[in-house]
Amino acid sequence: MSYLKKDSILNYSKNTNTMIDLNDLYDRGMELHYIANTAYPLTPTSVREYAIKGSEEIHGFLEKEYDKVKELALYFHVPFCKSRCKFCEYVVVAPNEAEMKDEYLKAALKEIELYSRIVRDDTKIVGFDIGGGTPTELGAARIEKITNKLLNTFNITNDITWSIETTPYNAVHKFDELKDIRQLGFRRLSMGVQTVNQELLKKMEREGDTLLYRKAVDAIRKAGFNRFNVDLMYGFKEQSIEDFKSTVEYTVSLAPEYITLYEMRYKLTQIATDAFSVTRNKVNQQYRVAYEILTQNGYKGNYGKNTFSRIENDHGTSDYLTNRVIKATPYLGLGAGAQSLGLNYLAYNQGAATKSIIKYMNEVEKGIFPIQDIYQLPEEEMMAKALSVMFYFGFVDLKAFKQRFNKEFTDVFGKEIDYLKLWNLAEIDNNQFMVTRNGVAHLSGVIPMFYSDRSKNELMTMNIEKILK
Question: How far is CA 380 from CA 101, 283, 386, 391, 409, in A?
Fold first, then answer.
């Protein structure tokens, strides 16, 4: 049954020579709301037809690619954690590799050296994040070596804010290292609280309680961080609206500068099949409750945005992520499993699939770019990837889109925009394509409108049980 009562609106697919009914596409997105989200491509094998094979071919392609890049964001991935949470989709190594930190550091420094030979000296670095995993598990001394290598390799200026992540446990129990990291120049710190529900924490095999969180905040402030973000998650199977309300209210009492809301993305997690029990209505209610609490307590963000800030004219995200979201700025991911997005390519480092660092380290040792998969994407796919991420903020900056792709957003997606405006799902105002409140409630139906024709057809025909199981 259609979520919106409407006449058929057909759009011609150039790639498949078929007509795509936007009504059916919208309905399918709403049905598969745990797949049709800001994560793109839809599956690990979606864009394999665009793969570049062979280390020599990859090297040659990257040389040409980075000769054209004028601005670049940097991300370094630390794949170590005290334990792996069941909701985690990222690269975190198994216990048998957890002590290989020195070996990993050695490989990471060599990977940076590989890219130093192809990234232009005048390429401006507009963001720098260290994430994970848990970056503070690597230790301040190793983080210092990574940071110094990056500073000596790339054009990192003082006008960007470096950001790093920690856990509540590490903030409290590794306080001296936290101070050392602040002294290195990291001004922004992000900490995952996720939930205050003890039963949910237990199921997710995650350590935490309100006393630990309070101590962690005290330690973070004492260490000198005045750009502090707390991550919260919603959309869990066992998480009630009241549960999430309590979590948000508690987090507000911690008074961080920023609060980020992450809707649970089940794909590639240990609890993937829980997605079948989570309704779009529940997720919408949880977001709405959180939005009301945050805005009533001085946190600003347009409805539909996932980051909220108490600082004026500050999106709440790191410089790295802000540039990714708004401008689709190319970013270079370093470390095992890290993702990179160039002007014309998408890549994943070794470890993205295996959650192991062994092959990553071996390939770097051989002087080979440690890339597991790399895809030279056509413009349509690059747009789809960029736009999916832009919906983190609930809007598309039309000037930024034009600058990135040299095309008018309204020309490329005219029929889709008209469709969304017709049903009060989106509007154009002040040079922004904005998702309305109604559109936020139906976001999983909105996002697929900007998929490539290939992905639109993939969404319509995918076997969801096979993907999640």
Answer: 40, 30, 10, 17, 12
129 bridge partner residues = 75, 163
Question: Dihedrals φ, ψ of 203, to 5°?
Answer: -65, -40
Alpha carbons 423 and 435: distance in angstroms, whole number: 11
Strand partners, 72: 125
Q: What is the DSSP string of 21-63?
A: EHHHHHHHHHHTTTTSSS--SSSTTTTGGGB--SHHHHHHHHH
The C-alpha atoms of residue 178 and residue 191 are separated, in whole angstroms, by: 12
Domain 55-324 belongs in CATH node 3.20.20.70: no
| 6-37 pLDDT tens trace | 444 545 454 444 568 999 999 999 999 889 99
The residue among 107, 42, 33 whose CA lies nearest residue 364 is: 107
pLDDT in tens, 126-139: 999 999 999 999 99
CA distance 355 to 372: 12
What does DSSP assign to residue 123? P
| Spatial distance between the Cα atoms of 266 and 307, rounded to a whole number of angstroms | 20
CATH 3.30.750.200 range(s) for the chain read 55-324
* Average pLDDT, integer, range 62-72: 97
Q: Which DSSP state fits 249?
A: H
Q: What is the pLDDT of residues 139-183, one digit of tens each?
A: 999 999 999 999 999 999 878 999 999 999 999 999 999 999 999
Tokens matching residue 240: 């009630």
User: Does residue 133 have a cis bond before it (omega within 30 degrees)?
Assistant: yes
Burial per residue of 384-406, b for 16 or more beta-carbon CB atoms within 10 angstroms, e otherwise = bbbbbbbbbbbbbbbebbeebee
pLDDT-based confidence at residue 341 (cuts at 50, 70, 90): very high
* Amino acid sitting at position 340: S
Give me the residue label for tokens 């030979």: 117
pLDDT for res 3: 46
CA separation for the pair 53, 13 (Å, rounded): 28
Given a cut of 90, is residue 357 above it in pLDDT?
A: yes
pLDDT at 274 over 60: yes
CA distance 446 to 395: 11
Q: How confident is the model at residue 207 (pLDDT cuts 50, 70, 90)?
A: confident
Residue 469 pLDDT grade (very low, low, confident, very high; cuts 50, 70, 90): low
H helices of 185-240, in order, are 198-203, 210-223
Bridge-partner residues for 300, per DSSP?
309
CA distances to 28, 283, 301, 426, 459 from 31, in Å: 5, 13, 27, 20, 10
